[in-house]
Amino acid sequence: MSVFTKVSHSELQEFLRQYPVGELLGFQGIGEGVENTNYFVDTSDGRWVLTLFERLNYADLPFFLGLMEHLATRGFPGAMPAHTHEGKSLTTLNGKPAALVRRLTGQSVLFPDIEQCRQVGRALAELHIDGQSYAGRCENSRGAAWRLETGRLIAPKVDAGARALIEDELAAQQKLDLSTLPQGVIHADLFRDNVLFVDQRLTGVIDFYYACNDSLAYDLAVTLNDWCFEPDGELNPARWDAMLSAYRGRRELTAAERTAWPLVLRAAALRFWLSRLYDWVFPRGGDMVHIKDPNQYRRILEHHRNTPPPAF
């Protein structure tokens, strides 16, 4: 359970008094997530998710919460942040920035089917379209500069094979400039555990705390890499085709995006391999902190380096 900051019953009761959400009925830590502390909270006025932000830049938090509200008011299946009696969506708890958002119905899926992949592709395109009217701006904290810096930091601490792969891929990525591709608001972390379903119906997109302004194609690559690869690093062509076709049904990729596509896929795989390696090499303290397997994304990166992506 990734809980870095513990919250007592009395502390949570006091915190909730600033919101028009009724009385506290119960709460529990959430097992997913590696960046923030999250709790499910039940009150007499509904079900909520409480997030305490552990490492995010405080100045960026209004961007995330404003984006969630922007999308929710346009019918996108995202969580609506709660506002205090004074109209604030960002507060503090136990010395950490905190936010309370409506808990969405549904569950994430570990083994998605074709229809679920199709719905995720369509939802991602809708997010990219709706996000064009959002005025907020936030740089990608895990962008090209972060990948270069983190790769150089990790390389001396891993085995020779991983070090050679990191160094070679960082050199290859110098040919890619994502800023030249169509830009907009991206989720940047639309993994399987951040999408909720009730049976075959997509009911929620959650965890917008990596959202930023960056390449739309990069966001699509991040999503495809998670949803359309098997644990052994092999591509599932049927899921890939379903998701990509659904996305393109709402937003077509440009010629520049298609040309850059092989390197974009590699950049997306490198980003998550490096972040998982970092957590492995430099572990943080916490209550049973969940560290994801970095080798999964090494296999995906190696696949993209060795195999051209399916033709459009």
How do the helices and strands line up, and which of them pair or pack?
Elements: H1 9-16, E1 24-29, E2 37-43, E3 46-52, H2 61-72, E4 91-93, E5 96-102, H3 114-130, H4 144-154, H5 160-173, E6 183-186, E7 195-198, E8 201-205, E9 212-215, H6 216-227, H7 237-250, H8 255-281, H9 295-306
Antiparallel strand pairs: 1-2, 2-3, 3-5, 4-5, 6-9, 7-8
Helix pairs in contact: 3-6, 3-7, 4-5, 4-8, 5-8, 6-8, 8-9
Organism: Solimonas fluminis
Family: Belongs to the pseudomonas-type ThrB family.
InterPro entries: Aminoglycoside_PTrfase (IPR002575), Homoserine_kinase_II (IPR005280), Kinase-like_dom_sf (IPR011009), Pseudomonas-type_ThrB (IPR050249)
Sheet-strand content, in percent, reads: 15-25%
Calculate the terminal CA-CA distance, rounded to whole Å.
40 Å
Looking at CATH, the homologous superfamily of the largest domain is Aminoglycoside phosphotransferase (APH), C-terminal lobe
- Annotated CATH topology of the largest domain: Aminoglycoside 3'-phosphotransferase, Chain: A, domain 2
Order of strands, main sheet, comes to 1-2-3-5-4
Q: How many β strands by DSSP?
A: 9
SSE succession: HEEEHEEHHHEEEEHHHH
Principal-axis shape: globular
Pfam family, one: APH
Keywords: Amino-acid biosynthesis, ATP-binding, Kinase, Nucleotide-binding, Threonine biosynthesis, Transferase
Protein name: Homoserine kinase
Catalytic activity: L-homoserine + ATP = O-phospho-L-homoserine + ADP + H(+)
